[in-house]
Design a protein that fits this description.
The structure holds two protein chains of two kinds. Chain A has one domain. In chain A, about 90% of the residues lie in helices and about 0% in strands. Chain A has three helices and no strands. By secondary structure, chain B is mostly helical. Chain B has one domain. In chain B, about 70% of the residues lie in helices and about 0% in strands. The N and C termini of chain B lie far apart (about 60 Å). Classes of the chains: A mainly alpha, B mainly alpha. Chains A and B meet through helix 1, helix 2 and helix 3 of A and helix 1, helix 2 and helix 3 of B.
């Protein structure tokens, strides 16, 4: 019962930050929305691993954290000084 | 122990929701970045440590993921704010102070790449 509350809150957070990524005026707004979505999704993966009792989801969350970090750094470097 | 973990997960998901709401509602890139980074960092940290309390065998890897998020999320936010300032994104018109305007070459790109 209480897990419904947790997943509802996380779904609302993902919805708002994806809405900002969809309709942000500049490129930086979209990247901020995607960055927030990445961090919320890492917590969602760990929480789904606890919900389904699968230990492998924690590995997926760790790899997704590394890839999201590298992706945001690459986009920031591209916006700052080109390819 | 399980009840304590669920309380931590509740605090974390509330902060994740507030972070998403701040990203959606605030008026500026920098305000959005501040709200999004701080709220989602604390929310993800608290949620993952709470999962580690609910399943005590998972505590080590949960601490690894949480410390990784705690170290890398401010770095990516700082790089993103610096890149958006240098690529010419304006501040909100009601912003009070801009310390970077006091320097000469703050918004310039490097010379050889213009």
């Amino acid at each position: 019962m209480i897990w419904t509350l947790f997943f509802s809150l996380i779904a609302a957070g993902v919805f708002f930050s994806l809405a900002r990524a969809a309709l942000g005026p500049t490129t930086s707004d979209r990247v901020v929305g995607v960055d927030g979505t990445v961090t919320i999704t890492i917590a969602l993966m760990v929480l789904l691993g606890a919900f389904f009792d699968r230990y492998i989801y924690l590995d997926v969350a760790l790899v997704y954290a590394v890839l999201g970090f590298i992706g945001v750094l690459a986009i920031a470097r591209y916006m700052e000084r080109g390819v | 122990m399980r009840v304590f973990g669920e309380i931590l997960i509740g605090i974390g998901t509330a902060f994740l929701f507030l972070g998403g709401l701040g990203i959606f509602r605030l008026p500026d890139v920098y305000n959005r970045l501040q709200a999004g980074t701080k709220c989602t960092t604390l929310g993800a940290f608290s949620t993952i440590i709470g999962v580690g309390f609910v399943h005590p065998g998972w505590m080590l890897k949960a601490i690894v993921i949480a410390v990784f998020i705690l170290l890398t999320n401010p770095i990516s936010a700082h790089a993103l704010a610096r890149a958006s300032y240098k690529s010419g994104v304006k501040l909100w018109e009601k912003s009070v102070v801009d310390r970077c305007q006091e320097f000469e070459d703050c918004t310039e790109l490097p010379k050889e790449e213009k």
